[in-house]
Amino acid sequence: MSHARPTVTIDAEVRVPTMTAQLACFHVLEPTDSVLRLQDDYRLDFCLNPRPRNTRGCYREHWSQHRFERIGNVFLLPPQETMQVSTSGGAPQGSLVCHIHAEAMRQWFEGDLEWTDRRLEASLDLGDANIRNLLTRLTDELRHPGFASEMLVELIAGQVAIEIARYCASIHEGPAVGGLAVWRLRRIDERLREIREAPTLMELATLCNLSVRQLTRGFRVSRGHSIGEHVAQARIDHAKRMLATEQSVKSIAYSLGFASPSSFSFAFRRATGRTPCEFRQRLALS
User: Fold this and answer.
1) Does the pLDDT value for residue 77 go beyond 90?
2) Contact assessment for residue 255 and residue 241, using Cβ atoms and an 8 Å cutoff
3) Helix (H, G, I), strand (E, B) or coil at 138
4) pLDDT value at position 1?
5) Cβ(41)–Cβ(164) below 8 Å
6) Could you give the dihedral angle defined by the CA atoms of residues 108, 83, 25 and 150, in that order, rounded to the nearest 10 degrees?
7) Residue 182 confidence (pLDDT) above 80
8) Which of 87-101, 158-172, 192-206, 216-230 has the highest mean pLDDT?
9) In whole angstroms, what is the distance from residue 105 CA to residue 107 CA?
10) How far is the C-alpha of 86 from the C-alpha of 73, rounded, in Å?
11) What is the pLDDT of residue 57?
């Protein structure tokens, strides 16, 4: 993927003591990786039209480099957290982007909230109707400001902070209903970090002390896709990083457990649309 940041156009902006709100248009025309991090603010993003296909996020200081979760219509990035965002690109995407000052959130959290694994995962898709309704009202105010607009925005900002605090405080650590426990997901991710042949379902089931059937069902509930897809993507991600080095394609193929360079090339092209050599040439030109 390209590492260029998307081009951003700001169509409207309002600043109040607790928050800066912007109507932004992101121009992402091709598959892109970007990194988001704020030092002292929460970033709240409300998508105003469909996000590019397969937009996913990874809290890379907490999760495996292979763990990317779907980003929903509303996501929240806590301060001093690093989120890697991967997207397939496509048509321009509009968002209401709010930078909420950490101090304003802290008073409603009654201190600093502990960002557990479940809360970080939930932050990528805030499925709360109250938050969504407030952000819709805020969007309308930015598009069509009226009498005492800044005062109204300040009041909405306070309500948003309260609703986020309530939503996050209600999320407790533990597996999703029918999903895998956090320690099992962590074991799977740790195994996938190893650069060798892909694990079998039986190997992963044994690691998790489950049957293969329990593993496959629970993993899909926890991550929203099959464990087979997850393993295959981890393998391709390893290959992409190794192709950025001087290792030969043959060496990479055998390091990742492929039977031959040709079987590696076939799998890589099926996943990325390019052969390993074409991918390496593109990296050299970027």
Assistant:
1) yes
2) no
3) helix
4) 46
5) no
6) 20
7) no
8) 192-206
9) 6
10) 15
11) 93
User: In Å, what is the CA distance from 87 to each residue of 29, 69, 158?
Assistant: 10, 12, 31
Mean pLDDT across the stretch 83-110? Answer: 84
Using DSSP bridges, classify how beta strands 41-47 and 74-77 pair: parallel, antiparallel or unpaired: antiparallel
- Calculate the CA 113 to chain-centre distance: 20
Strands 83-87 and 56-59: antiparallel
138, two tokens: 């805020």
Residue count (the chain): 286
The reported pLDDT for the residue numbered 173 is 55
CA 103 and chain centroid, separation: 25
Structure token digits, residue 59 = 């809290």
281 membership: H or E segment, kind and range: helix 276-285
Per-residue confidence (pLDDT) for residue 127, from 0 to 100: 80
Sign of CA dihedral 56, 226, 205, 272: negative
CA torsion through residues 222, 227, 229, 232, sign: positive
To which residue do tokens 């649309």 refer? 273
User: Which among 180, 205, 217 is positioned nearest to 67, based on CA atoms?
Assistant: 180
Place of tokens 């995962």: 121
Query: For residue 21, which of 81, 100, 93 has the smallest C-alpha distance?
Result: 100
d(CA 28, CA 85): 12
Q: Is 4 a residue whose pLDDT tops 80? A: no
Whole-number pLDDT of residue 5: 61
Residue 24 is predicted with a pLDDT of 94
C-alpha angle 152-158-162 in degrees, rounded to nearest 5: 145
Measured distance CA(94)–CA(23) in Å, rounded: 7
CA distance 38 to 77: 8
* Residue 81: both structure tokens together: 């957290």
Q: Which two tokens stand for residue 23?
A: 């109507």
Per-residue pLDDT averaged across 76-105, rounded? Answer: 88
